[in-house]
Amino acid sequence: MKTQLSLFFIALLTFSCSTPSTDKETKQHKETHEHQHDVSTEKEQVKKSKSPKTSAMGNLGNNHIHIEYSSPSVRGRQIWGGLVPYGEIWASGAHMATSINFSDDVKIGDVIIPKGKYAFFTIPGEEEWTVIFNKNWEQHLADDYDQKEDIVRIKVIPQENSFVEALQYKVTATDNSKGFISLEWGEIMISIEVINN
Description:
- Helices cover about 25% and strands about 40% of the residues.
- The chain is of the alpha+beta class and about 200 residues long.
- The protein has one helix spanning about 1-50, and strands at about 55-60, 65-70, 100, 105-110, 110-115, 115-125, 130-135, 150-155, 160-175, 180-195.
- It folds into 2 domains: about 1-50; about 55-195, no CATH class.
């Protein structure tokens, strides 16, 4: 009887000592699995994005121009006068407002723009677009747009272009002191002349 009792207590002691370790391992396994799930969910969301974040950049001499934007695709939709209405302020991309960063001062139209980062908005029209550089570069779409923050507004004429499925920006230098920023989407392109100051 004493032997059986001793064996029972030894078994109980062994079980109680090993249980926390097992619980800890189970918890670690669960946390690892949840973390892996979170990471793969984030990757899936990035992969599934219909308007992925991207960038365009180029140099005008020593002036580096960097554009960050989310790039929607046409996907068979009517863009101009449809998805993007005429006569309304547009973030010129999806999600967050498109931003443009100049490493040196530039001249756009008749205005000197100090080096720095700006939001890039447009007001598309059938015959003419308004192009806007705004001081508040960190905003969702045009939700917080304030015209008082505009640093420059210029008019440009849209040009017919070969079809471009996903919205894209380009920086093209014509020489060391000037060039163009262009936006292309669908069958429309606009270009803004940029001159180093």
